[in-house]
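Letters spell out the chain; backbone shape is given numerically. Both lines appear below:
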Amino acid sequence: MFSVSKTAFFILAVFLIFPTPLLAQAVSGDVAARRAELESELGQLEKEIDVQRKILENKQRESISLERDIAIFDAKIQAATLSIQARNLSIKKLTTEISQKENTLSALSSKISREKDSLAQVLRKTNRLDSFSLAEVVLSNENLSGFFRDFESFALIKNGLQSSFDELESARQETKKEQTVLEGRQLEQEELRYIQELQKRSIEADKKQKRDILAASKGVEAQYQKIVQEKEHDAAAIRAELFTLQGSSAIPFEKALELANRVAADTGVRAALILGVIAEESNLGANVGTGNWRTDMHPDRDAPIFLEITKRLGLNPDTMPVSKKPWYGWGGAMGPGQFIPSTWVLYEDRIATVVGHSPPNPWEPYDAFTATGLLMKDNGAAKGGYNAERLAALRYFAGWKNATKPAYAFYGDEVMALAEKYQRQIDILQRN
């Protein structure tokens, strides 16, 4: 009457033989093989991207020629194409991992449901034992020692089930967190791929322009050189070029260069590089200063600091432009240099020392240029040279921890291309 069922002992044995954590950590052979395949393909693509980057760097050192310019654009397009392919592989890899987490969550949920049912059965059995008085046991002619053994067995099984249920729930919550992180990374990769595709189209447009020059020169290198020189030496056209700054009015190129030169003298960071960073920050994707701090800014990290900054400056926070929130994180970056409030406040005293007024204003061009120069200096740009400047730009965009990740390489390449463009214009202006 009171004997423990074989089913209950089987359930207990299962828990002893197959510990819960193994379920949460299990990865099917197919998933592991696919992941390894994707990682191998991704590694090969990254090697090919490095080859194109070296070609680009070497070509940029050569003297200006038609062959050199076309080769530069070919290398840029090939690098962008390979980077997009690499990002597609990264997204596939993340999708596989997310699918794995979903399968794990499904298995954990099913096991939790089964264990709840088992626990309910054990509790009902235990309640039946609890409901019998000692007199009833004696009158039923049951062996007292057997009765208490059954009682202890049920209690043991109940405790085992409850412990396993708690472990399963903990594993389920942890897997859910991991899945959320992976989904965030996937969105980030998709956003970066979209930006890179836009940049690739821009490079292809530039290449078409070069081919148009080739057609005009009818393949004669000397004629090409003449056309290039005529275009580059048109200092009046360069001076008329507008350099649009996010969060401020359009500034003539000469004014932007004046600010960059002043900051370069104070920080040791090349003026053309400062221009390149701010140009890149002002034109990245949809973040062009159309956001609002209430909806686009990190509510804990940045919003309170943003309110303090605007209060000190006597500005209305609701009317000040900030970057819109992207797919994968928070916006709220301010002014031409696109500083988030929590970073800007760390540089306020140093900016104020350079510009000569306090508090500095992230929407004021000189203050913004100074902030960019100081951050780039801290990132190692003052050392000079292509590699140091590119790494500093990547740190500006992605932070020190993420600066060397292949996913962000396009930003450093784009800034260096812009810096080269502005350096050529600076050199022309200095000759006139």
Q: What stands out?
A: The chain has two domains: 6-215, 234-431. The first helix runs from residue 6 to 17.
